[in-house]
Amino acid sequence: MLFDRPELESGEELEQLSRILEVETSNNEERDRAIDEHLTQIILRREGESRKDYGARVDRFISYLRFQEDTSYISAEINRLNALKKSRKNLAKRLMNMILYRLEISKVNKIETNKYKISVVGKGGKQPVEIDYDEAHDLDLFPEEFVKTKIVKTVDRDAIAAYLKAGKPLPWARLVERGNRLSIK
């Protein structure tokens, strides 16, 4: 069965909707039209349908929505995989540093095996600079010639909204409706 949760049992409409949602399609209009048709079938009360049956069908649909909306298990899996990724990267880095250390103290610059060629080489790029001051908190200790100044400009949406609410027009901005949302309790 498509669902592992008992409250989502049966309901051919939900299974059809799931199939539509799972199909990757480049034609979003066609997909949206199909979804709209299925939602209409699910939400509208059918001729001769009792209130109890209608309520049960809508309850299944709302449970399905909640199921689709619940992404906490996906977030937990992402966190687990990120932790695993970080752990493996750290382990690989430690092992590489151990190999480099052993090669440097034994004064060996190259090793050739059947599969790999390992060499101790100098790092490229910019010459590293070590600074004794805290770059974030001790800026006043640096001579001005060694400090970059950045100016960041952002749009103040709150000020624009207040200006418009005061009845003053702006040709390039307008207040829009907040819209509606669906509340399910």
Molecular structure report:
Helix 1 (12-22) packs antiparallel against helix 2 (28-43). Among the domains are: 6-72; 82-122, no CATH class. Helices cover 48% and strands 3% of the residues. The protein has helices at 12-22, 28-43, 51-69, 72-105, 157-165; strands spanning 110-112, 117-119. It is mainly alpha-helical and 185 residues long.
Order of helices and strands: HHHHEEH
What gap, in angstroms, lies between the N and C termini? Answer: 27 Å
Could you describe the largest sheet, including whether it forms a barrel?
2 strands, antiparallel
Give the strand tally: 2
Structural class given helices, strands, pairing? mainly alpha
Secondary structure: helix percent: 40-55%
Tally the helices.
5
- In quaternary terms, these chains amount to single chain
Cα radius of gyration in angstroms: 31 Å
Shape: flat
* Average pLDDT for all residues: 82
Which blocks of ≥5 consecutive residues have pLDDT under 50?
Answer: none
Strand ordering within the main sheet: 1-2
- Determine the strand fraction and express it as a percent band: under 5%
